[in-house]
Amino acid sequence: MKFHNSIGPNPRVVRMFMAEKGFEVPRVEVDLLGGENRREPYLKINPSGQCPALELDDGSVLAEITAICEYIDEVKKDTPSLIGDTAEERAKTRMWVRRIDLNIVEPALNGFRFAEGLKLFQNRVHCIPQAADDLKETARKKLVWLDGLMGSKPFIAGDKITLADVVLFAFLDFLGTVKQPLSPDCKNLTAWFGRMKARPSAAA
């Protein structure tokens, strides 16, 4: 088994998830800045040209961070599940992953790609520079919305860490380096971010 790793928040989500689960696998580094992910032989591994990818022992490949993490959660059963132990818990985790992905991660990342990251992405994806500010504002508003829902909960979905926390943390940590920091007015999320930052997996 091999984990095709690179810089960026997407691979970090999986690395953090692996660390939380105690799942270790050899890594192959992919030069994302050099465009290695957009040409052969990497495209034979993951035709979408994206990182990360988990190559299984039989040669088949899993891509997309949610799919990889759910696979790891299922095969590594000797550590607590980060998806959920019951149908209700799993549904809540997937609900929050979906909300975070669609309402915060995607608009914020596209805001970055269409602005600060334009030189890197303009020849890789369809970029809409004029939409950058509105996309960033969309993500900011949803973070305020999420902050209001957090209350005193220690984690996004309740009393224990889940994939939703790992996804949001990895992306917020990255966004803070590209001019989209978490507003200190989001006091609940700021406290949550500090707790996540202190976890050993944050160094993964």
The low-confidence runs, each spanning 5 or more residues with pLDDT under 50, are: none
Strand element count:
4
Sheet of most strands: 4 strands, mixed
Q: Number of DSSP helices?
A: 8
CA-CA gap between termini: 19 Å
SSE class: alpha+beta
* Structural Rg: 17 Å
User: What portion of the residues fall into strands of 2 or more residues?
Assistant: 5-15%
Order of helices and strands: EHEHEEHHHHHH
Average pLDDT number: 96
User: What is the strand arrangement across the widest sheet?
Assistant: 2-1-3-4
Portion in helices = 40-55%
Q: What's the overall geometry? A: globular
Keywords for this entry:
single chain; 204 residues; alpha+beta; four-stranded mixed β-sheet; 8 helices; 50% helix; 6% strand; globular
Question: How would you characterize this protein structure?
Answer:
The protein contains 8 helices and 4 strands; from the N terminus they run E-H-E-H-E-E-H-H-H-H-H-H. Strands 2-1-3-4 form a 4-stranded mixed sheet, with helices on one face. Helix 1 (9-21) packs antiparallel against helix 7 (163-175), helix 4 runs antiparallel to helix 6 and helix 4 runs parallel beside helix 7 (163-175). Helix content is 50%, strand content 6%.
List the helices and strands and how they pair.
Layout lengths: L1 E4 L3 H13 L5 E3 L12 H4 L7 E3 L5 E3 L1 H11 L11 H27 L4 H4 L10 H19 L12 H13 L11 H11 L7
Parallel strand pairs: 1-2
Antiparallel strand pairs: 1-3, 3-4
Helix pairs in contact: 1-3, 1-7, 4-6, 4-7
